[in-house]
Each structure stands twice: as C-alpha cells, then as structure tokens.
C-alpha cells in the first residue's frame, strides 16, 4: 500500500471512519506499528498522549510495508490539532509511530504555481530542473510544462519502490527446539509471505531476502530447490520449506484440536481468545475451515471452551449473536472492556466491617439519673407494701419434720417477701426486676 501526502492519509482516514461508523473528530490513524504488536500495547502507547483520553483500537490494515500496520483508533476526547503531536514513541522501540487525524480543509487560494512549487520542493527539485526538460520553442505552453513535470516525477520515482526500506526477515534454520535468536516456522513463514505479497521489489530481490534469512537445514532445502530449478520463485522456496519443516497434521486434525481447546484455570478470557486465534489461523491455512466460517467458529468455540467465564459470556450475549458473529478485533475489544469493568466492580464491592466507638456502648448520665429515680420510687412503694394492716393469725400446728424435709421447705422470710412483691410484679409487668437489674449493673460499673 503506497500512501503519499498528508491529504491522502486524511482521505484514507475519512473513508475508514465511514466504514467503521466512527466520528472523525474522535478518530486517528496510526502508521508504523509492527505487525506482531499486541492491541493492548498500541492502546497503552497512544494513551500516553493525555489530551486524547481513553483510546481503543477499532480496526487494522497492512501498512506501507508488510511488517507495519495502519491502525484505526477511537479516542474519548475530541481531537485538538494544536495539542496532538505528529508522532508517538512506544516504550519498547526507538522508531516512532506517526499520528494522522482529520484537519480543517486548507484554503483554496493557492493556485497552480504554489502547488507546483510545493511538489517540486517535496521531490528535491526546482523550476530550473523543469525548464531544462523543456524545448526552447514550447516554454510558454501549459501542456509542455505539465508534460515536463510528469517526466521529472517519473524519473524521480522510477526506482523508489526497489529502494524502499523493508525490515529484514529474522533468521530461520528449521532446528527443533527453536533457538532463542531465531524465529519459529509459523511466524517466519507468515512474515515471508507478507514480504512477497506486499514488497514491490523484483523477484530476484525477494529470493535474495529469503536466502539471507536462512541457515542450517533450511538453507540446504533452498539450495536443493535451486539445483532442481534455477528459475524457482520465492513462493516456491516457501512451499518447499513448509513441506520439509511444517507439521504433518492435516486441516481436519488441526480443526479437531481447535475444538478441544478449553480455558485454563486463572486464564483471562482475552488471553484464551488470542490462544484460540492462533490455532484457528493454522486450521484455515491447512484448509480445515473455509475463511467465511471463521467468525462463527470462533464464537462457538469461545462459548464451548470458556469454562471459567460463564458470567462474562452471558453479559456479552454471544449465544444470541452466533448468526452475525463479530470479527476477532471487535470481539477482543468487547472482552477487554468487560474485563476492565469487572475489575472496577470488584474494587467497589470491597467492604469494610464497621467498628462502633467504645463511647457509644456506655449509657449516658441522663439515662443513669432517670433509672436511679425510678428505682428509688419503686423502693418506696415496696417499703409501703411491707407494712400491711395487722391481721391476727391462727396458731399454726407444730409439725415435726425430718432433717431432709426441713431442708426442702423454703425460708419463711423469702416466702413473705415474694407475696409482698407479687402485686407489683403483676401491675408493672416485671419492670421492678428489670430496673433493679439495670440499676445494680450501673452501680457496679461506677
């Protein structure tokens, strides 16, 4: 994909926003992010620009080179062109990512001469170079000027595609287990295929780049291919390497293995989805599943295999969306947002056991005074009831009791006291004992 000036990039951003149904005032285009970078890394990097607020990746495309991406991002805050930097530097890289956003249209006062001057300046040329291409008889003809500019641009950009910088492929040898400084078979083949498809260099240059990245057994395979066919293409090199080093599992075997994937205990749903996607990509490459059924198969296996995230699946309503399943990036964004919301809810639901102050457990002085007054009044009533009118009593017969029966009889004073207190008990519903108990407890505490 060849992208030119800022106006071309802004036009690409506007069209992309229409497809994704995103407001251009909250959208930006990120250029230069590596293909292997994680979505979370992209979002964290762009969010370092505080004026953008929260940023979410909405879609990606292959960038100017096969190893870079065009990333469509949506930010919470409205973009202010005067405060947003033209580039952002990731934490783990020295190469900055370019930021493009929709600017206000430039005034149309510039004429052809001004546009021509800017064009020549961007190409490192001047009007003298244009005049050198014109014949003396046709200097004043507008058609001749346009023709001369076209020839100049053709000469300038003739070999630009072959000189375009393309990241060198990592080393691959085919040794198992894969050494630390080398790339695995699957990743290396993917990068090589992107280079062949997107790089505009010649076939000879593509073969050279592949051979430069090989060593050991992998290089021996390519040498054998060149001996059998000196005109073999770079794609034929990859076919030979895949047949020699890739697993012998068929597409059906890989599809069955994909259907057996299950979420591990403690594994986040987003991590399980990414692990599923790697397996699903291999299935499609081996022909185990048509590309048109990838989204549906992904959602079905996520519902089946996410045994640790049942509640989150219910909140995402994936069962109702199987007929129109979301894409991988859309589903990943939804899951990550739900995981963030769940983490916030856990923090808010954390409770602290309330502790009452020791002073609130002690009775106030007013309550103590009221209880003392009530107990004093009850004492007075009790004293008055202990002096009833004298009533002659009949002499009680003397009964001889055995020692055991004497011990069993109650104390006469106690019985008399119970008889005197019982009327107050009946009239005040036992309040005498309650107030007496409270009063003596209070006296003991003081």
TrEMBL record:
<dbReference type="InterPro" id="IPR026523">
    <property type="entry name" value="PNMA"/>
</dbReference>
<dbReference type="InterPro" id="IPR048271">
    <property type="entry name" value="PNMA_N"/>
</dbReference>
<feature type="region of interest" description="Disordered">
    <location>
        <begin position="380"/>
        <end position="414"/>
    </location>
</feature>
<protein>
    <submittedName>
        <fullName>Paraneoplastic antigen Ma1 homolog</fullName>
    </submittedName>
</protein>
<dbReference type="Pfam" id="PF20846">
    <property type="entry name" value="PNMA_N"/>
</dbReference>
<dbReference type="InterPro" id="IPR048270">
    <property type="entry name" value="PNMA_C"/>
</dbReference>
<feature type="domain" description="Paraneoplastic antigen Ma-like C-terminal">
    <location>
        <begin position="172"/>
        <end position="332"/>
    </location>
</feature>
<dbReference type="Pfam" id="PF14893">
    <property type="entry name" value="PNMA"/>
</dbReference>
<feature type="domain" description="Paraneoplastic antigen Ma-like N-terminal">
    <location>
        <begin position="13"/>
        <end position="100"/>
    </location>
</feature>
């Amino acid at each position: 994909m060849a992208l030119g000036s800022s106006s071309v990039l802004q036009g690409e951003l506007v069209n992309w926003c229409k497809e994704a149904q995103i407001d251009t005032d909250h959208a930006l285009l990120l250029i230069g992010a590596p293909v292997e970078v994680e979505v979370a890394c992209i979002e964290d990097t762009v969010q370092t620009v505080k004026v953008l607020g929260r940023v979410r990746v909405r879609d990606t495309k292959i960038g100017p080179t096969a190893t870079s991406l065009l990333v469509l991002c949506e930010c919470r805050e409205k973009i202010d062109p005067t405060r947003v930097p033209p580039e952002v530097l990731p934490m783990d890289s020295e190469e900055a990512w370019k930021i493009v956003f929709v600017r206000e249209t430039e005034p149309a006062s510039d004429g052809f001469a001004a546009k021509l001057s800017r064009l020549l300046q961007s190409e490192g040329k001047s009007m003298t170079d244009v005049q050198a291409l014109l014949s003396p008889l046709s200097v004043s003809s507008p058609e001749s000027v346009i023709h001369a500019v076209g020839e100049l641009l053709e000469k300038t950009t003739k070999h630009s595609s072959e000189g375009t910088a393309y990241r060198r492929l990592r080393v691959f040898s085919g040794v198992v287990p894969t050494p630390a400084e080398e790339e695995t078979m699957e990743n290396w083949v993917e990068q090589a295929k992107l280079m062949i498809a997107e790089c505009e260099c010649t076939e000879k240059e593509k073969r050279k780049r592949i051979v430069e990245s090989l060593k050991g057994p992998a290089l021996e395979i390519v040498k054998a291919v060149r001996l059998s066919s000196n005109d073999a293409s770079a794609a034929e090199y990859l076919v030979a390497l895949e047949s020699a080093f890739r697993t012998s599992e068929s597409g059906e075997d890989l599809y069955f293995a994909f259907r057996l994937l299950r979420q591990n205990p403690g594994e986040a749903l987003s991590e399980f989805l990414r692990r599923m996607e790697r397996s699903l990509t291999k299935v499609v490459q081996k022909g185990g599943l048509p590309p048109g059924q990838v989204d549906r198969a992904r959602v079905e296996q996520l519902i089946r295999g996410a045994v640790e995230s049942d509640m989150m699946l219910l909140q995402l309503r994936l069962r109702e969306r199987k007929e129109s399943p979301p894409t991988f990036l859309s589903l990943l964004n939804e899951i990550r947002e739900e995981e963030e919301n769940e983490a916030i809810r856990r923090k808010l639901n954390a409770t602290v056991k309330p502790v009452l102050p020791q002073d609130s457990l002690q009775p106030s002085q007013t309550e103590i005074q009221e209880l003392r007054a009530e107990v004093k009044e009850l004492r007075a009533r009790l004293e008055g009831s202990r002096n009833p009118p004298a009533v002659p009593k009949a002499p009680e017969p003397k009964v001889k009791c055995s020692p055991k029966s004497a011990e069993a009889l109650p104390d006469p004073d106690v019985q008399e006291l119970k008889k005197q207190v019982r009327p107050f008990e009946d009239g005040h519903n036992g309040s005498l004992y309650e107030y007496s108990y409270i009063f003596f407890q209070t006296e003991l505490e003081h």
